[in-house]
Amino acid sequence: MSFFGKNIKKIRSVKSLSQQAFAELFDLKRGTLGAYEEGRSEPKIDTIIKIANYFSIQIDALLTNELTVNELLRFKGDLTTYAQDLKREQFALIPCITESTSSEYITLYDKKNFIKELPSIQLPVNPAKEFRGYSVSNLEMTNHDKGFYPKDIVIGEKVPNEVIKKLNNGTLVLVLTKSKLIFRRLYITKNHIVLRADHKNIEDEEYPISEIKELWRVRYVFCKRIPDFADGVEDKLLMIEQELIKMKERLS
């Protein structure tokens, strides 16, 4: 038994073609096509060849297998649908420096093969710009239980050395020096940069801009836990409101 009738009916469904429209493509009568689909008649070999060639389907597949919609969508040629024509959005692939690769990064940062082997994440950011991910590995950027904790990830956009002086003081940056990879806040002093931690017990580090190998301005942050964004303002307002109520009660 030939599967030709079922398959051409499914092709029509995928292509949203009426029997009349499909029949006209191959110089057939609508009634003849209907007979094929219902299995009341078998097509001539030249008709089979025309349909198979038109939709880039192998003749034996068209005749001996009941084709699925997914299989039909994979065929090329005129059977191509909007799902195949759809242009997929390409997310930027961002290499990420982890705790286990940070020491190697200091010496291999400019080796393309090494960068390709780093773990990576994909984000909908401008692919024309260069980004680098960094997994936080210490508590230098914490302050009173707020800030960045180990396993948090920051994403930095590369900043050319000649542009470093234009950055605002306090900007979060990831900096590569000759011997260290440092995640801190940036402060500019003449031709030097000062890297300051949020943790009060960590001393500043200062470097000439000419010695900076790479500097990445932090653009995005991914926290392992939900961060506490509260700054105490709501608590203070509540306290003031309660004091006003007490004053009103005393006056009355």
What's this entry about, in short?
The chain has 10 helices and 11 strands. It is an alpha+beta fold. The radius of gyration is 33 Å and the shape is elongated.
Q: What is the rounded Rg?
A: 33 Å
Structural class: alpha+beta
Estimate the strand proportion. 15-25%
Query: Could you say which overall geometry the principal axes of the C-alpha atoms support?
Result: elongated
Side by side, the strands of the main sheet go 2-1-3-6-11-7-8-9-10
Distance between the termini: 97 Å
User: What oligomeric arrangement do these chains adopt?
Assistant: single chain
- If helices are DSSP runs of H or I spanning 4 or more residues, what is the number of helices? 10
In total, the number of strands is 11
Share in helix: 25-40%
Report the average pLDDT across residues: 86
Q: Poorly predicted ranges (pLDDT <50, ≥5 residues)?
A: 76-86
**Main sheet record:** 9 strands, mixed
Helix and strand succession? HHHHHHHEHHEEEEEEEEEEH
Task: Walk me through the structure.
By secondary structure, this protein is α+β, with helices and mostly antiparallel strands. The protein contains 10 helices and 11 strands. The chain has helices at residues 4-15, 19-25, 30-37, 45-54, 59-64, 69-74, 82-85, 102-108, 112-117, 233-251, and strands at residues 92-97, 120-123, 131-135, 142-143, 146-147, 153-158, 171-176, 181-189, 192-196, 205-208, 214-222. Helix 1 (4-15) crosses helix 3 and helix 2 (19-25) crosses helix 3 (30-37). Mean pLDDT is 86; it is low at 76-86.
